[in-house]
Amino acid sequence: MTGFRKFLMQGNVIDLAVAVIIGAAFNAIVQSFVADLLTPLISAFGGLPDFTSLKVTVGQSNFMYGNFINSVVSFLMVAAVVYFLIVKPYTHIRERNAAKIEATTRDCPECLSEIPKAASRCAFCSADVPVI
After folding, report:
1. DSSP per-residue codes, the chain
2. Which domain holds residue 36?
3. 65-88 pLDDT per residue, tens
4. What is the pLDDT of residues 28-56, one digit of tens each?
5. Considering the chain, what is the average pLDDT of its residues?
6. CATH (domain of 32)
7. Same structural domain for residues 93 and 119?
8. Is residue 83 located within the same domain as residue 130?
9. Are residues 36 and 11 in the same domain?
10. Domains held by the chain: number
């Protein structure tokens, strides 16, 4: 039981749980934005009061493609927000930090072991190496 408790208290599990809860709340906001604001705005130009009423009837079956349009618009909005507010800044920060990290080691030309950049002799094979 202590192993399970330790697993649940790891940072990754808690971070994931918080992300799922925040994602569900954000999804509700986006769904409301699409259904209550964006869809009526788009349909004002098309003359339809709501996309959810769009359907095709084949025999006795109704295909509600208006709901699908709302879902696609919601997905695209969530994907755009995640990309521009999370992925893009994170990538930029990661690339900037990677550029700041300067190489402090180099390979020995004789034995190909990793040695400090300022070394004049290899610690592994004792070969003289030119100082860079």
Report:
1. -HHHHHHHTSHHHHHHHHHHHHHHHHHHHHHHHIIIIIHHHHHHHHT-S-GGG--EEETTEEE-HHHHHHHHHHHHHHHHHHIIIIIHHHHHHHHHHHHH----EEE-TTT--EEETT-SB-TTT--B----
2. 2-101
3. 888 887 887 788 778 877 888 889
4. 887 788 777 877 777 677 666 567 778 88
5. 82
6. 1.10.1200.120
7. no
8. no
9. yes
10. 2
